[in-house]
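## retry 2 of 3
previous attempt timed out at serialization; input unchanged, resubmitting
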Amino acid sequence: MPLLWAEPGDAVLAPGESEFDSAEVDRCAPWGWSLDARRQFLNAGVSEAVLPSAEAIERMRMLSHRRSSVELLRLIGMEELAAREMTDPDEVVEAERQTPGLWLKSPWSCSGRGVFCASSLSPEALRSRAAGIIHRQGSVMAERGLKGKRLDFAALYTVAEGGAVGFEGWSVFRAEERGVYTGNLVAPQDRLLQTILDAGVDPRPLIGPLAEALATLIGNDYTGPLGIDMMAHEEGLHPCIELNLRRTMGHVALAVAGRTTRPSLLGWQLNSSVSRENCLISHPNGFSLTLTETNL
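## retry succeeded, writing output
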């Protein structure tokens, strides 16, 4: 998949034998930074001097905690939309009793995983599930449910060396009711923006404030692409459902959009029959990255 956004002169590190001169590598760009990603680059011969330290990766991991979304909302003056962090399962049960329909989220999770509606569980089951998350990750995030979802979309940014934050474009994606990602729309930016506007919200005034907030929040602790998931719903706009401190499928869709003229849906398929002309990438284990024609 990195071939979709790689530029001339780049090398892609893939499983097996990757042939490139590691001495010429001056920058590495994994999907997201982790100790395992750092290990893979070191094993490929990349100099430790061009890699973030283990301590720097830990700082990135902490910035990937959902409390960063809370801080981002505070910095743009919309903290009333922020999730509450809880460390007591009984507090979670009581919060759901007082304001039914809370959504609970694991502090470290993405693409809809680790997210569930509290009202779908009995108080006993809710207490047990919340206790499990708190035991594994130290806390659980609870936020008010939003009614009448109209559109899932995201603002895409890149943080440069030195902390400068630049807006890259919009991402419009599809997710199941419980938030699990299913695919991205691939289309020119003006079409994607119009799709967002047609959902009844205009996020453009937030581009600058969010960039400033990101610069304050991240500082020099992260460089590379990131995405801020948003939602249009019947009450208006939620400007930060989730902060993804990594490359996202929205960035992939942005790269693919420059290579096609048809509005398409970009997504993963597993163990399914995919026509050769629509298949961007296939894998012997049954994974396929596909483009399917769609109407915006």
